Amino acid sequence: MVGMSPVTMIKEPEAAALYTMHTLEVSLRIGDAFVLCDAGGGTVDLITYEVVKLEPFLELKELVPGTGRPPSLMGYI
Questions:
Q1: Which pLDDT belongs to residue 75?
Q2: Does some domain include residue 48?
Q3: Does 19 reside within a domain?
Q4: CA 19, 72, 48, 8 torsion: positive or negative?
Q5: How many separate domains does the chain show?
Q6: Is residue 31 in a domain?
Q7: pTM of the model as a whole
Q8: What is the pLDDT of residues 3-60, one digit of tens each?
Q9: Residue at 73 is within a domain
């Protein structure tokens, strides 16, 4: 792709977190933690992140690894 390098691939919930923080201008500090709810398309993802690094780029660590199970297997549907 012309003019779009380098490209970094990230998980969908992480992209949603980055977009939300950017558009809402959320101020974060290293060590802060937050829960992201990404609902839609037949799935609901609840992800807990910790802020690891702010510069030169935001780095997040997933605090509780996801199970990847559909809601129907978890008894929600």
A1: 59
A2: yes
A3: yes
A4: negative
A5: 1
A6: yes
A7: 0.66
A8: 777 877 887 777 887 888 778 777 889 999 988 887 877 777 788 889 999 888 888 8
A9: no
Domain that holds residue 34: 12-66
What's residue 76's pLDDT?
55
Residue 77 clears pLDDT 60, i.e. is over it: no
Question: CB count, 10 Å around CB of 15?
Answer: 12
Rounded CA-CA distance 24/12 in Å is: 18
User: DSSP states of 25-61 as a string?
Assistant: T----TT-EEEEEEEETTEEEEEEEEEEE-SSS-EEE
Distance of CA 67 to the CA centre of its chain: 15
Task: Specify the 3-state DSSP secondary structure of 19.
Answer: helix
Q: How many CB atoms lie within 10 A of CB 17?
A: 21
47-75 per-residue burial string, b: 16 or more CB within 10 A, e: under 16? bebebeeeeeebebeeeeeeeeeeeeeee
